[in-house]
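TA notes, week 10

Several of you asked for a full example with nothing omitted. So below is the full record: structure tokens for the whole chain, then the designed sequence directly under it. When grading your own attempts, check the secondary structure regions first.
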């Protein structure tokens, strides 16, 4: 487990090596995926880049179904081989108070680690661009930068199962309707550096009685 502090925002990273990973995605500090989170009914849109022909469509990120093993392309979302990744947007339907944003991935080799930048918007920002292409800094188009997520290992194997939880010390990341994921390749040694993203959960902060 690694803990990366960004101001009051923390990025908690969990890892299971190939030999001990299971489809339950159990980690010491990162919660396992759940099926009834706030993203379960979200709408997903590809903003830039192309999904690999063997990838599942974007809805696999929120369907609550997890890969059966470490190399299950039809149960994961990943960008085209040889590409530099891409961007996709999540629309939660209305602004909610977000407690955590959790992402999960699983692959036996270099498509296991996660590397992306996370942005958020309430939907009321002046001149908000919902479709910022690569080369445009979303922060200049109405989006708020939340965190950079990187589970790239400092040494040892890349492959395995990764879980990430982005959260704030206050208990709230803020009230947002839209999330933007700007995904990058994990390595450039070959054409297989785009992460197998298995699931993304958005956890709403409990309302006070």
């Amino acid at each position: 487990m690694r803990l990366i502090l960004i101001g009051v925002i923390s990025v908690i990273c969990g890892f299971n090596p190939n030999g001990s990973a299971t489809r339950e995605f159990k980690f010491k500090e990162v919660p396992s995926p759940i099926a009834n989170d706030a993203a379960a009914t979200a709408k997903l849109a590809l903003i830039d880049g192309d999904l690999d022909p063997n990838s599942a469509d974007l809805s696999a990120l929120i369907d609550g179904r997890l890969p059966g093993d470490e190399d299950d392309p039809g149960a994961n979302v990943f960008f085209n081989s040889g590409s530099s990744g891409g961007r996709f947007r999540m629309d939660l339907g209305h602004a909610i108070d977000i407690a955590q944003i959790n992402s999960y991935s699983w692959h036996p080799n270099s498509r296991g680690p996660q590397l992306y930048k996370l942005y958020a918007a309430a939907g009321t920002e002046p001149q908000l661009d919902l479709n910022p292409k690569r080369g445009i800094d979303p922060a200049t188009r109405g989006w708020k930068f939340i965190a950079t997520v990187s589970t790239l290992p400092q040494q040892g194997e890349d492959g395995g199962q990764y879980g990430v939880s982005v959260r704030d010390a206050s208990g709230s990341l803020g009230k947002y309707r839209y999330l933007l994921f700007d995904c990058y390749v994990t390595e450039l040694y070959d054409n297989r550096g785009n992460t197998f993203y298995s699931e993304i959960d958005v956890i709403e902060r409990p309302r006070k009685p």
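The mean pLDDT is 93. Use that as a sanity check on your answer.
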